[in-house]
Write a structure and sequence with these properties.
The chain is an alpha+beta fold and about 180 residues long. The protein contains four helices and ten strands, in the order ααββαβββαβββββ. The strands form two sheets. The protein has an eight-stranded mixed β-sheet, with helices on both faces. Strands 1-2 form a two-stranded antiparallel sheet. A hairpin with a 7-residue loop joins strand 1 and strand 2. The longest helix is centred in the N-terminal third of the chain and has 21 residues.
Length: about 180
Amino acid sequence: RLRLCGRAAALAKRRHMPGSAQQVAWPAVDAELVKFAERLADAAGEVIRKYWRLPIEVESKDEPGRPVAESPVTIADREAERVMRELISASYPAHGVYGEELGQTNVDAEFVWVLDPIDGTKSFITGKPLFGTLIALLRNGRPVLGVIDQCILRERWVGANGKTTMDGKQVTTRGAPRLPDAMLY
């Protein structure tokens, strides 16, 4: 998850935003794009479930600059990203895509989708359901929408327009006055 956020941040224009995220007025995103992002997650999930716990070939891809320079990739990763790209191209041809497996297209567009079809490929290939599809949408370099979809566990988080939902129900943090008081895992 941090890797996708880092990629989205690398694409985003650097701005000084004082205070917490609650004090920042994030740009609104149209409900149609939120539904479309969920459609992307559904499509990726269909592909991923076809390969779940089946013997598949695992390749290594080189990722210089990471603590471990090699990372596993499977046909499920590539097919899931391909399906999402096809949907984006058909529905929003002017939008760009920054993908984990298949590279970048039109990343200077007003809207750019950031896709990681299987974040946690090692968990996927070893049969542990602790991986997810990560989808973000940037508008003019600023994140406006994010989806974390765990297609095997059937759990989905969607963040847009200042709200986060899990499986369609709004969720919030408990709030911690100081970072050391926060519980993270």
